[in-house]
Amino acid sequence: MKVIFMNIESSKPKKQRKFFLEKALHLKQKSVSGHLSKELRKKTGRRSISMRKGDTVRIMTGKSKGKEAKITGVDYAKTRIFIEKMTRKKSDGTEIPVGINASNVLVVDLDSSDSKRFKKTAKKAKEA
Questions:
Q1: pLDDT band per the 50, 70, 90 thresholds, residue 125
Q2: d(Cα 85, Cα 95) in Å, to the nearest integer?
Q3: So where are the chain's domains?
Q4: N or C, fewer C-beta in 10 Å, the chain?
């Protein structure tokens, strides 16, 4: 049985959580988007954008508040982003990256290597 979740009708918290956790990856990708800085908003004509490896972000909450670093990876299944120098040590001494929720960062600079990513934003910027 194939089920595609597009709209959810229920207002029950249990069903809301279930919907979010069982979402398809191409829909979860939209959950891993972050707000753009004021300069980027003017430049792109958008308020938020889906995060990708190579984007530079500023951490807005927690111990590392105010630090800027590049994204080293994005986990769409767990809706987490991984940032340079944000690691923790395991008991055996190896370091692993710490996942951060995308809502806790502000996108400061975008990785512009993919031209397809900016086709729509270029149109919006021209209209505005």
A1: low
A2: 10
A3: 32-127
A4: N
